[in-house]
Model the fold of this input.
Amino acid sequence: MQGNEPFRGEAVLWRSVPDDAVSYCFAANVIEANDRHVALYQPHGAPIRLRTGARGGPRGSILRGGWDGGHQELPWNGGPSVRVHPRGRHYAVIRQWDSSAQRFDGWYVNLELAWQRSVAGFDSRDLVLDIVAERDLSTWRWKDEDHLAWSVEQRILSSAQAQWIRNAGWQAVADLDARTPIFTDDEWDQWVPDGSWPFPFFGADWASKPAVQEWTP
Done:
């Protein structure tokens, strides 16, 4: 499976891998996967798994050395959402899907390492800092700057990594300001999910060897 693009509707996992093991992952259906974009659909109630252990900070994150080796499974309690990653960029755009109105709402830019194909689906690494834009994309703001600062204080991230993350965010902002295709409503018409797809699930390979290599800016 690794190295081959999944088919439309296939259940895959998106995994955040900060070291040599999965930190957070969610099950989703593939909408599109090609050399330009990967689009995943995460329906309400789809399973997620996250590390267990000692937590702290503004978002209740796992402390440095606080992971106890386990994972907790929970249902996704957010609304149905579509996550689109422009290949080679260090972010994904997440929008809520309103099936009754047949439209997408919101513009949430999640900073994360460029996705890599893995046995389980796609691997990346969440980069803590995010961006939220208005519906018309006229203005935007950073989100979770306090979390980024705390991560540096706790030595979870280095100052160099934090600056690298900020630079990745500015690249996303440049794409937003330029209205590259991922930041246009017309482009999103091709990423409408199909409600008849089988519900996504965790396979036996959910904790398989990650594809993401160590990140050292």
Observations:
- The chain has a mean pLDDT of 95.
- The longest helix spans residues 159-177.
- The longest strand covers residues 61-75.
